[in-house]
Amino acid sequence: MAAGERGTNVAVLGAGLIGIDLADKIQRSTSLDLRLVVGRHRESLGLARAAEMGCATSSGGIAALLESGPFHVVFDASNADSHADHWTALSKTGTTLIDLTPTQLGTVVVPTVNGSQAAAHRHINLVSCGGQAAIPVLHAVAQHCTPAYIEVVSTGASASAGRATRLNLDQYIATTEAAIRSFTGTREVKVMVNLSPARPAPPFRVVMTVLAPDLRPGPVGAAVTSAAEEVRAFAPGFTVASATVQDGRISVAVEVTATGGRIPRYAGNLDIINGAALLLAEQHAAALSR
């Protein structure tokens, strides 16, 4: 499919917290034309918010999306259990599917690590919000040492985790662990997730611990700083809160705050994965316009 005069036409499948923030980001893009936001329940709050934003909406799920297409890009912001069926339905249409659910299906892409490969694939998986926050740093660290063990603990505000996120926590952990192994070459990986009910709501925070006998403070510290700068190109609220290297152990804590849009600042988990999805779609749009 070639892009039309109004740009690359896209649709969002899923009207939860992630889907609605993503729709807002797409509306502010100069190269993407949001044609449809799809949910499953006619009375859902997400679809009502999408309609208030001026989006065309449907409650017909994947069937309604297929009837309204084809689309150059579809963002799957629904749930991991449904994603395989969504790809089966869309794979025959020529659509590029960007998966924001933790499924381990499709080609895993982290924009600052292997984003240049995304254009060659039509089924892209973005791991998880924790994966998008941690993997750029861990990949950078792994270029300067040989990690024997990696532990990642993500903490997000309870209010920033919708129903699908809570239902998919097991898949979230498994998919994030698998992606970290792939991008760092480390066999021993452990991922944990905390949802905090604290008030005021805390920002999205990811703490990474790496054990490696050959760690050197200078190169590793510079690698973490450089990785963070690259992530800020699509997630401006990404910051390194602390980084220490001592006795074969590195501990890095990053925080992500949401900047702009319709979500609160503490919802950095939504901001970083949606920022990654938007970046890849805009790169796809640029390729179509050539």
Q: Would you summarize the structure shown here?
A:
This protein is α/β, with parallel strands linked by helices and 290 residues long. It has 10 helices and 12 strands.
Can you give keywords for this protein?
Rossmann fold, alpha/beta, 5-stranded mixed beta sheet, 7-stranded parallel beta sheet, 290 residues, Dihydrodipicolinate Reductase, domain 2, single chain, 2 domains
Can you give a write-up of this model?
With 290 residues, this protein is α/β, with parallel strands linked by helices. It folds into two domains: 8-126 and 270-289, 3-Layer(aba) Sandwich (Rossmann fold), CATH 3.40.50; 129-267, Dihydrodipicolinate Reductase, domain 2 (2-Layer Sandwich). Helix content is 39%, strand content 24%. It has ten helices and twelve strands. The chain has helices spanning 17-27, 45-52, 61-68, 80-90, 111-114, 129-142, 163-167, 169-184, 217-231, 268-289; strands at residues 8-13, 32-38, 57-58, 73-76, 96-99, 107-108, 123-125, 149-157, 189-196, 204-211, 238-246, 249-256. Strands 3-2-1-4-5-7-6 form a seven-stranded parallel sheet, sandwiched between helices. A hairpin with a 2-residue loop joins strand 11 and strand 12. The longest helix is centred in the C-terminal third of the chain and has 22 residues, at 268-289. The relative contact order is 0.16. The mean pLDDT is 94.
